[in-house]
Design goal:
With about 100 residues, the protein is mostly helical. The chain is about 75% helix and about 0% strand. It has a domain at about 55-85.
Length: about 100
């Protein structure tokens, strides 16, 4: 998979060239409440598994931290894309 930016490994070339479009499509298909619920289930699963990777307290702590940061990341991305598309609509509305 060719990379636009050496720090991105999952975005396709097309998505990397237009990340706002990717964010818009992502949040059109996945609501924040759905993402929060899925993230919570992921956290609970990681913390309640016996004999798993997160058995070590340090790993559990890292999982909780990661969960909290991902929650913020999704919310920030949602706000960015939402504000971006609102601005586009407002600009287009003033041209008419």
């Amino acid at each position: 998979m060719p990379q636009i930016n050496p720090q991105t490994i999952c975005l396709t070339e097309k998505e990397g060239k237009n990340p706002m479009k990717f964010l818009h499509q992502f949040f059109q298909n996945h609501h924040l409440t759905e993402i929060h619920k899925l993230m919570w289930e992921w956290l609970v699963c990681g913390l309640t598994q016996k004999d798993g990777y997160f058995e070590d307290p340090k790993q559990r702590s890292k999982l909780i931290w990661c969960y909290q940061e991902f929650e913020k990341l999704f919310e920030a991305a949602w706000l960015i894309q939402n504000n971006h598309y609102k601005s586009k609509i407002e600009i287009q509305g003033t041209r008419n």
